[in-house]
Amino acid sequence: MKQIPQPSRLFSAWLGRRRDASACAPIGVDFAAHGLNMLQLEAGPDGPLLRAAVSRPYPVERAALLANPRALRAFVDQALASAPFAGRRVVAALAPGDVRILPLTIQVAGGQGEAAAVARAAREQLGDGAAEHVIDYYHVRTADAGPEKQVLVAAAPHDKVVGYLDSLCGAGLDPVALDIGPAAIARLLAAMHQDDYEQSVLLINFGQARSYLTVIWGRRLMLDREIEFGEEQLVGKLAQALALPPEVALALLREHGVGGGGQDGASDVGRTIREILYPEFAALAEELVRTQIYVASRTRGSTLSRVYLNGSAARYADIQSRIGALVNLPVGILDPLAAFGQAPGFAAGPELSRGIALAAGLALREEDNG
User: Fold this and answer.
1) Which of 84, 173, 200, 216 has the fewest beta carbons closer than 10 A?
2) Beta bridge partners of 224
3) CB of 236 closer than 8 Å to CB of 253
4) Residue 277's closest CA among 249, 262, 258, 261?
5) For the CA atoms of 289, 295, 296, 302, what is the dihedral angle to 10 degrees?
6) pTM metric for this prediction
């Protein structure tokens, strides 16, 4: 990740630390919406090995826990003690709500540095509040080699960054880098497809209120954008149509799914759910078509090779076949642990794979260059 000299150098102060060659690899730490996920790797002869991983629900709400240093320290200590973690050095990510991702096209004029061009473009997007933000950027891979460059700018309010770092330090952790979710997820997907360098891969990360589409091309992040599709939307539509409490509608979705790719063999309840949610999945299909067109435009005609699913709706029994019918591509549930071998002395249980993706991507970060 590149650091922009202005409007803030705070990330540089943390990301510019010298790496201690004798220290263990940092732990990827994800304070997710409902629980803490941590993962640590170690070097192996054929690639990184999984040294330790844990996923633990919060004892109280996330905001309350982060605001209580003593309770947070005790909770983190218990999590670290539950698996063979080494050290307390961490790579962490800001909460998605605290970061704006801005896809920008920049043109570097003669005598102007790239970082200055990005900073100028970011200020134009953020307006008067730009000076109150920490801003970094990532190159987006493209087949075009012209004067214009595609970048993803990450902008976070200065006070949010400082507050999060204070919480990490208050928990007895040593932050060696901050990162953003899209970059970490792209890093994980690249590790899973390191032999398919010219392939484009899409991850649909289902959230509660919004979902995110992340595309990598080879080992480079190409696209990350938010769409209006989430579990709350599906639950609300089903609850309204059937006059059910939201918790009952959610239970129906998890038991019967969303209708799969066809109706043959589906139960009456499954067919009803499919019909009710048809407009939501039609809108999702349009978003996926736009994504495929964008990928083709940036890669001179290359297409997506496969789709991964992650997050809340990925738990639905027939979600793979339903999405597969929309994109006509191989679709699978993301298994972040598939990218690594396991170090001796630690056996990861199947329950870890559900929410550990971001922590795995964070653990893969190379401190010196991101």
Assistant:
1) 84
2) 214
3) no
4) 258
5) -120
6) 0.84
